[in-house]
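Might I ask for a little of your time on a matter of protein folding? What I wish to show you is a protein chain and, alongside it, a tokenised description of its three-dimensional fold. I should value your view on which stretches of the chain appear to form regular backbone elements. You will find the record immediately after this paragraph:
***
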Amino acid sequence: MKIALGIEYDGSAYCGWQYQDGVNTVQSVVEEALSRIADTPVRVITAGRTDTGVHATGQVVHFETSVKRSDYSWCRGTTRYLPEDVSVLWARHVDDDFHARFSALERRYQYLILNRHERPAVLHKKVTWEYRPLDTSLMQQGANHLVGKHDFNAYRAIACQAKSAVRDLRELSVERHGDFVVITARADAFLHHMIRNIAGVLCSIGAAERSPAWAEAVLQSRDRTSGGVTAPPDGLYLTEISYPEKFAIPSGRNRSWMFGL
């Protein structure tokens, strides 16, 4: 049988999603909990490998097993053995042709910025703090240059191992909600540090240190060194993985915890 799970986690205490020897990762605690429910080792495949400190409200994984459990048991039972900062939101028996990564149509992330002079306390590690006043209209003008199918080599980490830097960025919006600025990005897939590098460029534009046209100049350079700083991971959330309707995978959009976005 093949089982899909929806997972939510606070990434603050983890060295990213992917299993690594000797360090704490989200994948390792999820697999340990599933293995206890199944009473046999379980390995999962994920839709998106988030980095150190990055959070998720809509992560999707799948695993194969011969162990018979109800969807309810896979969901509630696994969560019982997880740390308090990781939770299974749903479980579904899925068709054999479902694949958490390769069946995905697109990914959606949100980057949350607390834009005020004082640093956060309650939302420490849950948002990125930016003390410089940000003009979201300028940020949106810069973002508009990046929407579409482009070579995003200048917006990925130098260590990124993807064979191609071409991605279809279908949405890049910037909105203000009081002291919060929310960047929403939706694409077929993302490169390593792509959203954080985009956020770094847009923040420099919003602070009037650069013009909106700089976003396109960086894009056209195809040179990571021309793109400025990489924004912190604290405010980055994987909010939704979209799949073909035939798989009946629950949407993650309704679980975005801030502003209902």
